[in-house]
Amino acid sequence: MDPNDRARGNAAGRAGGRSKGAGIRGPSSALTDYLQEIGVTEHFRERRRREAEERAAAEQGGQQGEQQQQANAEAENADEEGAETENAEPDHEETQDVEEETADSALAADMQHAEDQAQEAGPSTVTVQIKAKGKGKRKKDEESDYEPEDEMTVRGGLNRSSARKGGRMHDCDMCGKRFLVRGEMPDQLLCAACRRSKDKASAADAASVARRARTVQKKPAARHKMRKTEGGLLEFEAELPTLQNLCVRAIARHLDQVDSLGEVSGPSLDRLNRIISKLRVLDAQTMRLFMGADRTSVTLYDCTRIDAAGLRRISDECPMLERLDLQFCGRMDGASLLALAQGLPKLQHVRLDGAFLVRDTEWAAFFREAGGRLRSFSAAFAGFGPQAMRALVTHCVNIESLRLAECSDFDDDCLAMLAVPITEYEEAEQEAERKLRAETGKGKHAVGTVLSWQPLAQLRVLELQRPHKPMVCTTARRVVRALGAQLRVLDMSGFRDLDDGFMGDMGDHATSLQELALASCDSITGDAMAAFFARRNGFTRVDLGRCYMLTDNAVQELVRHSGATLRHLSLNSVDDSLTQNGLLALAGQMFEQCVGGKEPRLAEQTLGCVGLEVLDVSWVRSTTDNVLETVVSQCKRLASISVYGCGSVSAFAPVRPGLKYVGRECDTL
Questions:
Q1: Which of 154, 594, 640, 645 could form an S-S bond across to 619 if both were Cys, CB 3.0 to 4.6 Å?
Q2: Rounded to an integer, what distance in angstroms lies between the CA atom of residue 502 and that of residue 507?
Q3: How far apart are CA 550 and CA 558, in angstroms?
């Protein structure tokens, strides 16, 4: 037959077929119409009937064993397909869409090829071989027919073997996608992709928790233990605390449960007292632990929480007291102070810091009562004025040490009472106090006699630190002329009006000085200090802080004449005229300036300050690592060096056991 005639016949047959089936039909796709035209649906039904007949024959012929083996094989294939579906990547949905589009394109191409074959074969029944290209695997030689009701199953990634094993279709609780569920119903219906996402999120959370736990459990790097001292100094903990120190700390923490300390040594008791005062738990109840009828010395480092009644109780519990040291006693008043003087007949040494409630007249009453018993007296931050000073000079003739610091009412008239009266006013003021002393019968003189002025012949220590009111240099020179020969310690820090004439009188009269403090006396020149140190020797402690006109020559003279005995030296903030040559003098290297601007040359080599223990060169910017290396190598006993504000002192500064740096910038917590 001619090919053209065959094509016309096929077209006529198709037209006739459509005319036979003309009528009202439900909605259907073009692909369904095409499959019906080529007979794919009839062939599928025949294959189903054939499979049913084969199963019936197998049941009758005793082929149950083979049927069981085939079912097991199909189950294994289904499990492999499900595992491959679950092991897919998290982007399974996007990959599935791409594969579905590819499968649709391939299916359309196969359908076109089948249509060409159908045109050649005619209207007879034709078997179409469709190769599945989706996610489910098919055998290459399997004959399959496409039905509209199977479209959702193919696109959902399910095969017929999965459907035959049972189960129900459900919607995913997270993404809403339909999937097959077998067995027991889980608490949360999740498809394979959402279940993997949830598992990964749970694993990430568990890893984060474990990582945080490792971070918390990780021990910090070993660091040196450091402690903070009273002056803000950060020091290395040189050694482990002793058992005694640990016991003292335990007692301090549980002081409210302690009734009595029993037999405790003096150093341990003082250490416990310091710890308790630092913890601010010392009050009128806990202070009784440090009292006793046989106590001759009482020191309370923080009396902030002790009221006036508690302070008066000291005389009742310690009647044999000879030394009393009360610090931060801001709640003490005049009545409690007078009660101490009357209730302690053997009291000789008194230190009261912060008693600002005691008035000037009450101080005077205390000195009249204490009389000649006092050997040393110290007051700081108190209202100590002219009346108190006049009573002290008149009645406490046996006093050996006098320290007055930061007293608000101490003025130049008070200072003049230490010297010989030169004006009628001064004589009249002291005459009244001497008459009062004669009338009360205090001291070794008879009642009714009027005494002339007499110096404090036993005075050895005189410290008048940082007065709040201005002092006249002439008055200070009078005091030096009157008392300079007997003084061992002189501290006039803060007397800004002192000049070179004062240093001249010091050189003439202060022949026995061992400790000298002239901090903040910035009117004294370096030449005057050099001349003074050249005339006197044997100093053990010298404080020249903030004496801005101090020169290298003055330090060299100090080292030449007192280098062997000097233990404590302060050059704080002496930065205007002091150079490295002055600091090197501490190591015994005496440099002198050369004419013509040449470099200084080493003129003399001495032993230097071989006994120096404490050195303060804070804010002296000429201090460097090299200078300190020279000084430390020569001063073998040096234990503490203050270097606040010295930026040239680094971590490479010389170190040795027992030496500590205070205020070094590179030292951090």
A1: 645
A2: 9
A3: 12
Which backbone phi and psi does 594 adopt, to 5 degrees? -100, 150
Name 239's Cβ contacts closer than 8 Å, sequence gap at least 6. none
Here the tokens at position 556 are 């060299």
In angstroms, the CA 226 to CA 236 distance is 5
DSSP string, 423-453: SHHHHHHHHHHHHHHHHHT-SSSPTTPPPPP
Q: What percent of the chain has pLDDT over 70?
A: 70
Handedness of CA 268, 315, 346, 301 (dihedral sign): positive
DSSP code of residue 7: H
CA distances from 187 to 173, 184, 260 (A): 11, 10, 69
- Say if residue 463 is exposed, middle or buried (CB neighbours under 10 Å; 0-12, 13-18, 19+): middle
Evaluate whether 191 touches 179 at the Cβ level (below 8 Å): yes
This model's pTM is above 0.85: no
231: its two tokens: 């002056």
Q: Which residue has the higher pLDDT, 429 or 301?
A: 301
* Residue tagged 């897919």 (tokens): 88
660 φ, ψ (degrees, to nearest 5): -130, 150
Q: Residue 387: which residues within 8 A CB-CB, separation 6 or more?
A: 360, 361, 363, 364
- 130 close to 31: Cβ distance less than 8 angstroms: no
What span, in angstroms and rounded, lies between the C-alpha atoms of 337 and 332?
7
Question: Which position has the token pair 């050249």?
Answer: 534
pLDDT in tens, 601-658: 899 999 999 999 999 999 999 999 999 999 999 999 999 999 999 999 999 999 999 9
| 548 SS3 class | coil
In whole angstroms, give the CA distance from residue 543 to residue 663. Answer: 18
Whether the CB-CB separation of 330 and 358 falls below 8 Å is answered with no
| CA–CA distance, 190 with 166 (Å, rounded to integer) | 18
Q: Nearest 5°: CA angle at 205, between 201 and 211?
A: 145
CB count in 10 Å sphere of residue 52: 10
SS3 220: coil
C-alpha distances in Å from residue 283, one per residue of 122, 140, 241, 265, 266:
119, 100, 27, 22, 20
Cβ 340 vs Cβ 362: under 8 Å: no
Using one digit for the tens of pLDDT, what is the confidence trace for 487-517? 999 999 999 999 999 999 999 999 999 999 9
In the numeric block, the tokens 């003025």 are attached to 411
Give me the sign of the Cα torsion angle 505, 506, 510, 512: negative
Torsion, Cα of 134, 138, 139, 141 (10° steps): -70
Cα(593)–Cα(440) distance, rounded to whole angstroms?
A: 65
The enclosing H or E element of 181 equals strand 178-181
CA–CA gap between residue 308 and residue 329 (Å, rounded): 9
Burial class for 325, CB neighbours closer than 10 Å (0-12, 13-18, 19+)? middle
Rounded-to-integer distance, Cα 40 and Cα 42, Å: 6
Of residues 228, 231, 233, 224, the one with CA closest to residue 662: 233
Interatomic CA distance for residues 179 and 172, integer angstroms:
7
